[in-house]
Structures are given as C-alpha cells and as structure tokens.
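Let us work through a complete example step by step.
Step 1: write down the sequence.
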Amino acid sequence: MIKKTVTSRKKTAPKKKSRKSAKVRLPKGPIWQWSALETAAAIRSGAISSVEVTNVHIERMHAVNPKLNAIVVDLSEEALKAAKAADKASAKGTELGLLHGVPITIKENVDYDGRPNPNGVPAQMNIIAPSDAPVVRNLKKAGAIVIGLTNTPEFSFRGFTDNPLHGLTLNPCGIPTSPAVDHPAGPAPQWPPASERSPIGNDIGGSLRWPAHCNGVAPSSRHRAESLPITRAPRPNGRC
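Step 2: predict the structure and record it as tokens.
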C-alpha cells in the first residue's frame, strides 16, 4: 500500500511596494539657488526635508531683504509650521502636491487670508482679505509654502516700487539708477539674490515683464493674468 504524503505550502503575504521615490541627485549649489522643480523633487525623494529647505530660504531672506526691502510681510513663523506639517504628510505616505514643501512669496496686492491688502496705500491697511485669492489657494493646495508678501507701488500703478507704507524697493544688481524698476517689486528684485525661487506676481501693462528685464530674470508663460511665476534667465551683468 502506497501512502500519499501531502505537503502544505505556507501562504506568503504579498510584498508591500515601497512608497519611496527613486533616489534623486541633489542639485549643485546652495539650497536657495535650486529651482522650484529641483526643490520639489528633492523633498519628494526624501533627500531633504521641507523644514530644512524653508529654514534656508528664511535665513537667506533675512540676510538680503534688509538691503532690498522687497519682502514687506515676513511669514516665517507660519511658514515653518506649514513646513513641519508638510514633512509629516510625507512621512505618512500622503499623496503630495506638485509644489510640496517649496517656499514661495506672494505680491501684497493679492488677497491672502486674514492679511491686509493695502496695495501700497496706508489708508487701506484696514482692508483685510476674507479668504485667499484663487492663485494663493491653488498654490497652497499644490503644497507650496508662503514665506512672505512682497512690495508694490501705490495702487500698483507705477513704473518703479516706492510707497508711503513700505518705502522704496531696490534693484539687487546694485544699479543705483534702477530701483526695483518694477511693480511687483517683490518678485523680480528679490529673485536674483534668491530668498526663494517661485515668487508670484501679476501683470497688466508690464508689471512683471519690465522689472524682470531690469533684474536679469524672466517671467514664465502666462497661464492666468494673476499668476506669473518668475524663472531663470541669462544674467547680463553677472552681479545678480
């Protein structure tokens, strides 16, 4: 009589797929010089945290802004809170936005929830934004972290930036005859020294295009009238 032997096979649980992204080689240069896409990729890969990136940008902002007067509302404290929340979301494996953890600035004439929208006019300091403008809301939804609000001339209606509320914004290239030469003084003049890499401004009659030209940078493609991030461009005098 032949006895049949039955061997039992142990069921093995399927291997869980790792949520970690492929390793990303960190960009060359200081963190504050990385592009928004490079920064987002580095944070997404886990090579660097949002808190680290935000701290570097805040330090750079505090180092260069006193001479430029480009960023007139410092949101460092709430930016760091947002960065910590961003890192917690990354650790949990939450789906991340395209700009997750990337520091940005917003022009002060764009509504920012709970903040005045004076447009360079002292008498309008009591105009408080009841909510974020669509562009701000969408950027936050994408994971961007706002570190400050940037200057603008009175009523955003001048070829250079000076106002009785925040004063004159200077050109970072060290050109005394060209102040901020701009309208969203914050975005263009503060970009070359790079306190952050994706300043958001707006443009009707050249408010981004002209100052960008004067500061050695170039605004990106126009998707909406109120959202024009500034990107890298050739630097003619090498001083920016």
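Step 3: interpret the result. The CA atoms of residues 75 and 148 lie 5 Å apart.
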